[in-house]
Amino acid sequence: MRTYLVRRLLLMIPTFLGITLVTFGVAHLAPGDPLQLDPDGPGGGVASRAAIEQFRHSQGLDLPLGVQYARWLGKVVTLDFGTSSQDHRPVAQKIGESLPKTLLLSGLALFLSYALAIPLGVLSAVRRGSWFERGVTVGLFLLYSMPAFWVAVMLLLAFARPAALDWFPLQGLTSDGFAALGPFAKVRDVAWHAALPLVCLTYGALASISRYMRSGMLEVLGQDYVRTARAKGLPERVVIWKHAFRNAVVPVITLFGMTLPHVLGGSVIVESIFGINGMGSLAFEAILHRDYPMVMGVTTLTALLTMASMLASDVVHALADPRVGAGVAP
Fold it and tell me: Fewest C-beta atoms under 10 Å: which of 32, 84, 155, 288?
């Protein structure tokens, strides 16, 4: 197990370097420049051009791209992502203010997705061919086909308008005067604001995970050891949850590394629609304003979170199936 973990950590190094190289290249080779001014506009002219060139030189933007990448990578290793070109604040500081909100929503969305999808997938497999299984299948396919931005808008129109039900707040993750609330009131206020965004971030992952769980259970239920357990007279509950489930859930564990990027990607749209100042809306604003340091910082940190989630899923997979950690093919 230790050798497997060390090997996985070493493989993350070239992966991280490749991600930083692609991120830096795409950001700098994209058309447009946030420092360019219209020469015919009110801010154009020789003075503006001279100020821009001076700023480029002070920031090292006039150096070859290879030198710029080496400098930027050296700072990234120390979590120094530079300064935002929008408000000249450190990128790391702005990310530190937005990251907790995104992690809270993403973590809750992943937890709810697995907590609901696993029993739903197991019951769909056990009751194969029933009206329950058919209804769940149709419902999950409908959920998976609906885009998150459309669902977010429909939820706001139905549940956050005074002319409609007006059960939930329209924007933000906290209410005014949040700092003066007590601990339990703060939890209740955040849960009230996060309810609709969590629905948008959860339903897609819920649909896909439950289908994987159903397929895994159907495959395991046909194995010889399950039939042997039933022939011994074991209760059906023991056969399903103790014998079949333990083997069927292993492939679902590996989906965690792929589900987190899906949730983080969806947060860009969801946070923008619901007015939540998280990593998603931060990245969206940075792209609109061509804030390259912010774009590269958010992308790099998202890649690190994705690699960490994939490492965690591999470790859990190895713990659940010792053959993986020992290097033996299942």
Answer: 32
